[in-house]
Amino acid sequence: EMYCKADIQNRYEWKKYQDFAEIPPQEIYEAIGIIISIEAPISIKVLTYRLLEIAGIARAGSKITQLIEQYLKRMFQNKKCLVKENFVWNIQNNNLIARNRMNVPSNEKKLELIAPDEIQQAFIQTIKNALRITLPDCKVEVARLLGFSRVTSQMQDILDLQFAKLKRAKKLTV
Question: Would you list the DSSP string of the chain?
Answer without folding.
Answer: -B------GGG--GGG-SSGGGS-HHHHHHHHHHHHHHH-SEEHHHHHHHHHHHHT-S---HHHHHHHHHHHHHHHHTTSEEEETTEEEESS-------B-TTS-TTT--GGGS-HHHHHHHHHHHHHH-SS--HHHHHHHHHHHTT-SS--HHHHHHHHHHHHHHHHTT----
